[in-house]
Automatic annotation (TrEMBL):
Keywords from the named record: Membrane, Transmembrane, Transmembrane helix
UniProt key word Membrane: yes
GO MF term set: transmembrane transporter activity
Name assigned to this protein: Transporter, MFS superfamily protein
Membrane-spanning ranges: 16-35, 55-74, 79-95, 101-117, 137-160, 166-189, 209-231, 237-254, 275-292, 298-319, 331-355, 361-381
Source organism, top-level taxon: Bacteria
Keyword Protein transport appears in the UniProt entry: no
InterPro entries: MFS (IPR011701), MFS_trans_sf (IPR036259)
Length: 395
């Protein structure tokens, strides 16, 4: 491992990454699971209000590149703890401000913490993990997060159905538990040192162009799943909120069971083959969404679609292999911003297309998956510095 640790006990960088991977599912899954009911029942939101709220939520993701400027004043490990604290506090106070303005403020606070956390987690993971262990460990982090999400959904159900707690107290409990975990992390773990000092400026390198392209397409693919696949379930097949929750539980169960194994497979077969398999599968899934007529088959597509997300960690390990080790922090912020360009553009543009033909949204998604497949073909069998792509190397 590329770090110098002051202890040989359980307080290792891997365990640090594992525990921080538990905090976000507790906080963010709670926020997300309760949001629609809370804003309608307590804050009297209209469709325009929820659209505004979701747009505000995405702004910090688009501005994730600013993390590199903050790193001029604070070390990454302390910054990630501060980000988790912002996320936890934002969730804890959400229920106490049931108005449009109040929710915009708490959501912005929560989202800033969440998006900085995701940016820094990628950076630290790629710095702290060796190239050999990264695929398996990143898969393990997904698995742990999925298990934490499953437990969180179960606790939420008990608090709401059995104890009949008000939304504000459920939010408060989720945020407080998350904050307590953050405090434990801050106190328990020593400061780990990376073997390579990080560049503290924005960096865009021509030789990373394939990574940038794959990252953008990954963001586009995520929006189709998050925004339109779920909407299809409700609009066309009349799935209830309970049905959608059950699908999420199935999805997280699969991630818990298989994400680590998927990481191991990526480590064995390589990023090129893993991404080729993912995008080939996505082409079939998106075409299936376009023409499916049975609710059961739609649900199966939804679960398979979500399972493919674990394969996307191959994009991160590909970058780790081709990158200058000093570029991890800077490029993590740039990549998160590139990923969120799609989050700004696709919901609006594809939403207009949906009004004309919902099937067309998924046909375009299939075309995007084909483009992603073509991009993945350009990954070398053994990517490394100086061997970033098979063709179109721009220096």
């Amino acid at each position: 491992m590329q770090i110098a640790s002051k202890t040989n006990d359980w307080r290792t960088p891997q365990n640090f990454l594992l525990i921080i991977s538990i905090v976000v599912p507790i906080a963010f899954a709670s926020w997300q699971a309760l949001l629609n009911n809370f804003v309608i029942e307590e804050a009297a939101f209209t469709g325009a209000d929820i659209g505004l709220l979701q747009s505000v939520r995405e702004i910090p993701g688009f501005l994730a590149f600013t993390a590199i400027f903050i790193l001029l004043f604070i070390r990454e490990q302390k910054f990630i703890i501060a980000s988790l604290a912002m996320l936890a506090i934002g969730v804890a106070i959400t229920g106490f401000f049931p108005s449009v303005f109040g929710l915009l403020c708490t959501t912005l606070l929560m989202s800033v913490g969440f998006h900085y956390f995701e940016t820094l987690k990628q950076s630290l993971s790629l710095q702290w993990l060796t190239k050999e262990e990264a695929p398996e460990v990143l898969g393990k982090l997904i698995s742990v997060g999925a298990l934490a999400s499953l437990c969180t959904y179960g606790v939420l159900w008990v608090l709401l159905e059995q104890f009949e707690l008000a939304f504000k107290w459920v939010y408060f409990i989720a945020g407080t538990v998350s904050f307590a975990l953050v405090a434990f992390i801050a106190i328990a773990f020593p400061q780990f040192k990376s073997a390579t000092p990080q560049n503290k400026k924005l960096i865009l390198r021509k030789r990373y162009w394939l990574y940038y392209a794959l990252t953008f397409m990954s963001g586009a693919r995520r929006q189709i799943f998050v925004v339109f696949a779920g909407f299809l379930m409700v609009e066309k097949f009349h799935y209830s909120a309970a049905d959608i929750t059950l699908l999420f539980l199935i999805n997280y169960t699969f991630n818990w069971l298989f994400a680590k194994k998927i990481g191991q497979i990526i480590g064995k077969v390589g990023e090129r083959k893993a991404l080729m398999f993912e995008y080939t599968g996505l082409i079939l899934v998106f075409v299936g969404y376009a023409f499916v007529e049975q609710a059961e088959w739609a649900a199966a597509l939804y679960v398979v679609d979500h399972l493919f997300f674990a394969l996307a960690l191959a994009i991160k390990t590909y970058f780790q292999k081709i990158a200058d080790p000093a570029d991890m922090a800077s490029t993590a912020g740039v990549a998160f911003t590139i990923n969120h360009i799609a989050a700004v553009v696709i919901p609006v543009t594809f939403g207009l297309l949906w009004l004309t033909s919902p099937a067309s949204v998924f046909i375009v998604g299939a075309i995007m998956a084909i483009l992603s497949l073509l991009l993945s073909l350009n990954i070398p069998a053994k990517p490394e510095e100086g061997n970033e792509v098979r063709v179109l190397s721009w220096g």
